[in-house]
What we know:
CATH topology: TIM Barrel
Mean pLDDT: 98
CATH class: Alpha Beta
CATH superfamily: NADP-dependent oxidoreductase domain
Amino acid sequence: xxxxxxxxxxxxxxxxxxxxxxxxxxxxxxxxxxxxxxxxxxxxxxxxxxxxxxxxxxxxxxxxxxxxxxxxxxxxxxxxxxxxxxxxxxxxxxxxxxxxxxxxxxxxxxxxxxxxxxxxxxxxxxxxxxxxxxxxxxxxxxxxxxxxxxxxxxxxxxxxxxxxxxxxxxxxxxxxxxxxxxxxxxxxxxxxxxxxxxxxxxxxxxxxxxxxxxxxxxxxxxxxxxxxxxxxxxxxxxxxxxxxxxxxxxxxxxxxxxxxxxxxxxxxxxxxxx
Length: 274
């Protein structure tokens, strides 16, 4: 049995999105970015999550072009940054992202943050890109329930994904329940709380039981909660470790123990503070 987790989650339009991907936030060294993505793909990852603001779309595209698997077998996400939001601005930003990536389509394109007075127009532009078959799936990032309600009231195509900060200290259960009720898959960013949970006694104890690290326990918790998860690392050993979670399953009591770590604590920005 392979340890590498390769399952997918079906989005509302039937597209299969890998449930485990590599996040490339803060990968700023071009060669390191290229090598990390290449190593991840060779290891078994099939999804890469980038964004305009990460300033590594070119390296992402280069790694995909030189990958050991065809482009069509990979799932690439990018996002429109806050200063590029608005209807026409988003269309231009997407074109620029495609040029940097060197692609003729994206698998998923997201509004990065719900910029007040702009995020509904931004989403309308993303809908147009979807209609024109330039993106295979459509979504948002960092949207609370009230943001989603405003989009759903006007959307012709509902968001298929909402990428949010989510980890055992910020379980976001009300938002997850809303997304589930509306057919919106949830992707967890900062899934390990930026490393703050790696010495958490509960996770160390659970990991010992399964012969797994706290990071692997956390990633498995995300997956068993039907979440898409995008851990970030540039270290080959960590990249490999993070995807080797297919060979164990947390018990329901262990899942509850991890759930109980919630404190509604963010490591990043609250979308309502924009």
